[in-house]
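## retry 2 of 3
previous attempt timed out at serialization; input unchanged, resubmitting
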Amino acid sequence: MPDMLKRLLRSPQGAAGVLIILLALLMVVGGAHVAPFDPESISILTRYKPPSAEHWFGTDQMGRDIFSRVMVGARSTILLSLLAMTIGSVLGTASAYLGGKFDEFMMRTMDAVMAIPSLLFALLIVSTLGQSSMNAVLAITIAFVPGMVRISRSVALAARQQDYINAAIARGEAGRYIILREMLPNILAPIIVEATIRVAFAIMLFATLSFLGLGAQPPEPEWGLMVSEARAYFFNAPWMMMIPGLAIALVAIGFNLLGDGLRDVLNPRSH
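## retry succeeded, writing output
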């Protein structure tokens, strides 16, 4: 692992991706503590303030501090997008391990879901269930799980034939233990490479749903919703729209760069 990290940091795209994702994770973990203002606190007297020493990213149409809203909004935008990748990896590994009718049912279901474009499918789910962050998360999870299921299953099928899996079965280990403790840790590398790329698309899809008014609802500090609310004020206060838009773009680019760097590091032909 240390050697892989060193090789990753030696590549320009890998180093840039790691830096951006580390900053994003710091925002997820400590954004609420670093934010200098309440992200939902309204102040009529400080509306449309440009970036300054007091308000680093300026204020919006209700006087809310944009820096605080961006910091707090990172949690919902990034963490919720990672959920689909985790669920898909576990389901794909379980499908490869269990095989038989479960594997057949899982794959045919995934094929049916993948036949529908992800954005259209997410819009259909949210329109049916109603407008909320949780419904948007459910829509993104359902839309992106099939791709991760197929990737993780293809890798797990090879691991299923290895001796250490047969030894775990011979010891009488439970299926859950074998899937989570034996198979997943040994197939993480290709799954992580694929997940980093798909997370970028999931982040943009979640922001798109919020932008369309089908995801996060006011006054939640979600990046896509912030861009949507700022459209009407772009010519008077362009920072309101540009800053959360740049945040979405940077995080998506960061995950893509990290995926490219990991792909090069894990490619045996590059060593």
